[in-house]
Amino acid sequence: MSAWEKWKRRPQIVWVRKALFQVHLWTGIGLGFYVVLMSVTGSAVVFRRELGKTLAREPRVAAGPSARMSEDELQQAARRTYPDYEVTRVSLRKNPDQAAEIWLERRGKKLQRLFNPYTGADIGDSLRPGFRFFLWLVDLHDNLLFGQRGRMVNAIGGILTMLVGLTGAVIWWPGIESWRRSLSFRWKSNPKGFNWTLHSALGFWTFAFFIMWAITGIYLSIPNTFNAAVDFFEPIHASSKNLRVGDQMLYWFAQAHFGRFSGIWVKTIWAVIGLMPAALFVTGMVMWWKRVIRPG
Question: Phi first, then psi: what are they for 64, rounded to 5°?
């Protein structure tokens, strides 16, 4: 039987597939926690704009019998409330029912507080607890909480994630006689068989998304590298008024990563499919556990 016939009918005995299976297995296990983290946080960050607006909403104040206090008067009110702090900024909003924002600082510690512009009363932190958590979640997804170093780790993680996806696509092929069965999972299978068919089917139907998120994630982590590549292949001409093809591609990379094509329904679909990499890791770990750690 030729190598092509083996791959066509019995790919499980082809040595290349066996080697790629090991690459897929151990890269997936090593990368598992990272994939789950990016999958879960990414699905939440898809709604970055909507959640940001909702969670950042400030309390409204009722207009008092007198006019709003001046910036100097608000500054004095803030000093009375926080005598050990220095007022660094006073911001009066345009709308009469909006609170004034005052920034204070003491030995490197900074506060951003809201004050009632009619009474001078401190009414709370200008950054709501939910909004602070959401900012933390975005930073976790984008930078792993480590700034530029975290972005570099994300770039490496994206490359390894793409490796897992590509090797998974190769080892997915079960042979010409049974490939159709690998397109769906079977509820009536035994737990071991059900888990395998679920992993296989999820991998097939989400493969394009998986690779797209890996590539666009690499771009968002190291955009300067991609911009330099566009400049190399499409040098900027001062006389040209058209947007370069490379620039358009990079723009759509950012749009595709977060599903910014249309309304909330597209983002909802992106968020749901965004959880599939985590599901792939879980089903893959279950297979590994039952075959290697606890066989039988």
Answer: -85, 180
Q: Are strands 100-106 and 109-115 parallel, antiparallel or unpaired?
A: antiparallel
Contact 162, 211 (CB under 8 A): yes
Residues contacting residue 172 through CB under 8 Å, at least 6 positions apart: 182, 200, 203, 204
Tell me the C-alpha distance between 283 and 294, whole Å: 15
User: Is pLDDT at 162 greater than 80 in this prediction?
Assistant: yes
Alpha carbon distance 256, 221 (integer Å) = 15
Going edge to edge, which strands form the sheet with 109-115?
Answer: 86-91, 100-106, 109-115, 122-125
> Of the candidates 95, 127, 105, which has an alpha carbon nearest to the alpha carbon of residue 114?
127
Distance CA 296, CA 284 (A): 17
SS3 169: helix
SS3 of residue 94 by DSSP:
coil
CB atoms within 10 A of CB 3: 10
User: Which conformational region is residue 253 in: left (phi greater than 0), alpha (psi within -120 to 50 degrees), or beta?
Assistant: alpha
Dist CA 143 CA 255 (whole Å) = 18
What pLDDT was estimated at residue 295?
72
pLDDT tens, 1-17?
Answer: 678 888 888 888 889 99
In 3-state terms the chain splits into helix, strand, coil percentages (rounded to 5) of 65, 10, 25
- Residue 152 binned pLDDT confidence (cut-offs 50, 70, 90): very high
Residue 241: strand pairing partners: none
Distance CA 208, CA 217 (A): 14
The three-class DSSP label of residue 84 is coil
Global confidence as pTM: 0.82
| Residue pointed to by tokens 């789950």 | 36
